[in-house]
Design goal:
This protein is an alpha+beta fold. 25% of the residues lie in helices and 28% in strands. It contains eleven helices and 21 strands. A hairpin with a 5-residue loop joins strand 15 and strand 16 (310-319).
Length: 464
């Protein structure tokens, strides 16, 4: 069994449309179908799902859940200093403005499960609580607990020396100095402050280091207009992915490269991305690498020549094997561009990734969405694939128990009385394997669909 870093569950409270605490879980229910897709950790006696689809009406809270993952991760890693100056609490209850927003991750890291959480007053840029526990046989073993009290103007952190692997007096002194420092910085988390230390320093606190790595490198969040931000794709891998473009019926039959000037090739790309690509090429100068750079309206290849100079090429697409029919990335349909932007996901299935993708089905035909998900599910069955994919979607054709398990289908619904978002799983309804889930959903049996009202126009005076 390889190394498994996976999301177990996530809770959110008092954030945007989420009022009371809501829980999203990757823990399987009692469904027995497609058991081959579950990831079993024999050491922990824990199984986890690799896929979930979240459904709900427009403005129900689907994207807000994605924002909760994104916002909490950024606060944990970088503190509140650079957080947007806006109110993130549940605004439909004015009393919630000065109540803490709460996030908690339960994550499997290697062969242990941890619960890390924090409470923040975002508009005041204050962390009020922070905690980390190891979960072991339904017991919670505290690793550290931080609390800041306004009433007594006091802050403290209790910590477990054994679990933080602090064995030397100097290490304890270093950590206690860090505690005093972070207690004076209400806008910082302990994780963010430790992360700013030198590599050797943070690695001393293995649990916190592993959590930081998972949040920073293994939790991938893709918003509707973004490309999959995985590692740079090598051109030989992209050629392999051409088979997927054919499979998804894009009409693309071949690709070629056209050299471009550096200035023209790099228009629209961030300096950090370009520097990262150049750095990787120069590190691997002897390996003849060609890296694919995916933009919103362009697709380039970067490579390095014998002189050590970086060269850039544009990828052109051929349709129907017509030699004169070559198209740039920008000339492709929105749906085809979306496939290309997300196709790097299939290159990461053997890695520890938890990928959260908002509006997977944007610009796609229903059958394409189903085929994309089925391709992920099929590939994720293989040993060594610990990748999790969580999507928000309106595509009801996926609601088929021959495709998905009932615990892989989740809903978010806006409470009609309070306006708050509420999360629940199809597993709660325990439908039989033969149930037509899509039909029942569209008829409103499970909720999480729009409820329309009659417009108040004057029927008597309407135009004939």
């Amino acid at each position: 069994m390889g190394v498994m870093d996976m999301l177990v569950r996530f809770t959110v409270e008092n954030f945007l449309s989420f009022n009371n605490e809501q829980e999203f879980s990757m823990i399987p229910g009692r469904a027995t179908s497609h058991d081959e897709r579950l990831e079993q950790n024999d050491k922990l006696d824990v199984s986890l799902l690799k896929f979930c689809a979240l459904y709900g009406a427009n403005a129900s809270g689907k994207s807000n859940l994605v924002k909760a993952f994104d916002m909490s991760r950024n606060i944990i890693l970088y503190g509140l200093d650079d957080s947007p100056d806006k109110e993130w609490h549940f605004k439909l209850d004015h009393k919630k403005k000065n109540v803490a927003t709460r996030f908690e991750y339960e994550v499997q890291l290697k062969d242990k499960v941890y619960a890390y959480g924090l409470e923040v007053i975002v508009h005041d840029k204050r962390v009020t609580k922070e905690w980390l526990y190891e979960i072991n046989d339904d017991k919670q073993i505290p690793i550290f607990l931080r609390s800041i009290s306004d009433e007594v103007n006091d802050a403290y952190i209790d910590y477990n020396e054994e679990f933080l692997k602090l064995t030397k007096e100097k290490e304890i002194e270093e950590f206690e100095f860090l505690i005093r420092r972070v207690n004076d910085l209400e806008m910082e988390t302990l994780v963010s402050e430790i992360s700013r230390g030198k590599s050797d320093f943070i690695k001393k606190f293995k649990v916190i280091y592993d959590l930081k790595v998972w949040l920073e490198k293994e939790l991938i969040i893709v918003h509707p207009n973004e490309a999959y931000p995985g590692p740079p794709i090598l051109f030989n891998e992209f050629e392999y992915m051409l088979e997927l473009l054919k499979k998804f019926d894009t009409g693309i039959t071949n690709i070629k490269l056209e050299e471009k000037s550096e200035k023209k090739a790099l228009e629209g790309y961030s300096k950090s991305l370009i520097n990262r690509v150049k750095s990787q090429l120069k590190r691997n100068v002897d390996q003849d690498e060609k890296i694919v750079i995916v933009g919103s309206d362009s697709l380039e290849i970067a490579s390095i020549d014998d002189k050590g100079d970086v060269k850039f090429y544009e990828i052109m697409f051929n349709h129907h094997n017509i030699e004169t029919a070559w198209f740039s990335f920008g000339e492709e349909s929105d749906g085809t561009k979306r496939i290309i932007q997300l196709i790097g996901l299939f290159n990461d299935l053997d890695k520890n990734k938890t990928i959260i993708m908002d509006e997977l089905d944007r610009s796609w035909h229903p059958k394409l969405t189903v085929e994309f998900v089925k391709e992920f599910l099929e590939r994720s069955k293989y040993k060594g694939s610990y990748c999790q994919l969580i999507i928000t979607t309106h595509e009801s054709a996926l609601m088929d128990l021959d495709i998905l398990r009932r615990d892989e289908i989740w809903f978010v619904e806006r409470n009609r009385e309070t306006g708050s978002s509420e999360l629940f799983s199809l597993e709660d309804f325990k439908p039989h394997r033969s149930t037509r889930i899509e039909k029942n959903y569209l008829f409103g049996r499970y909720g999480a669909i729009p409820v329309f009202t009659q417009c108040g126009y004057d029927k008597e005076n309407k135009h004939e």
